[in-house]
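Note to self: user wants both folds in one dump. Writing first protein now.
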Amino acid sequence: MTCGCRTPPLELGEKNVTREEYGAAYQRSYKLTVRFLVSKGLPYDDARETAQAAWVKGWERLAQLRNPGMLLTWLNSIALNIHRSWMRREPVLQTLPELAAHPGVNLAGIDARRILANCRRNDRKVLEWHYLQGYKVREIASSQGWSETAVRIRLLRARRTAGRGLSAKLGIRAALSRERASVQPVARVA
């Protein structure tokens, strides 16, 4: 029986695996377990650590091995399960950029309030319901007794008002008008 790998299958005793047989299997197959984990996307150092933990756990639970000829497959599944359990327990760490403001300050909330302050009362309500609370146009229309077209028009008007207010505060409009004024029209040559 072949296992489909380059190394010969493990020749282990039928009933119980002895300490010497397990040690010999470790010498022959540890690198294969590491290679298996690297193929699953683990960095090499993490794969070595996980493979070592899997072989230790395999030794501790050797009595659970049903078929000694499947030792490598059994250990690879232990290694993969160890990796998965570490992934579930370990939080994914990301490097955060330096924050200019205190973390308790919600800058997006402040910006949203400033944008909404530029809108009319009904337009502000529609924006809040649609974008902040997640209601659909149909739901807003039925709850307010308006047509869906009226809600869409209010949303359009509110977005335009908010955009104009935001661009005016950021100075975009002034910069664009200065840029347009500095561009000279090109005379056509006939």
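First done. Writing the second protein, which came from a different request thread.
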Amino acid sequence: MKKLFFSISFLIFCLYGCYIGKPLKTKSTMYINFSTETKVYSSFDGKYAKETSWSDYKNAFTQGMKSESGYYNLEVVEDEKVKTDFTLDITKFYVSETSSTETVNDAASPYNGKSFQLSGCSANATFVLYTGKKEKMLGEWFSSAIKDEKITNNRNFGDFVLGSNKDNSQYRYKELDDNICTTLSEKCGKHVIAKLTRKIAKNQK
């Protein structure tokens, strides 16, 4: 049991540890450059990712980087002419929505064999970090934030009120928030900062 506890704890640490940055020893500045425009990829019947909202996703992604950087002694500078300690080059940023089919496999449920069409959304970024004004390349990395619709047979508030689905035989799919792509874009920006501050802090040792 103790080994299982430590194994689960280690798994959780690895899962969330990659989203936690490391404060820099000295306050540093960084300029963010976008090499390409934001792209939106969505299936024909997509519900969440909208091509017309690409600027909203880019702004949320940028805001995520700016808000997160302050926690790690890193300041984002928006003026390209200002000398900075680092330059972050976003070589690719895109929002994607895909669809998949999942079938209920529960012989005790009247929904057994029923298929649900589910959507999955993600915000993804490839980025390169340089010292100064692209004087020396420190590395290239990838970060993302993902959220999928899911099938569930858990009782919801309505079930408790009506006293229904006590045997958990009723299945439904949980939709995502309408603004999920904006939320994921901001979260992806935060993941970018978390990853690069760990890389910078490692080089500062």
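Dump finished. Worth passing along: Confidence is low (pLDDT under 50) at residues 1-17.
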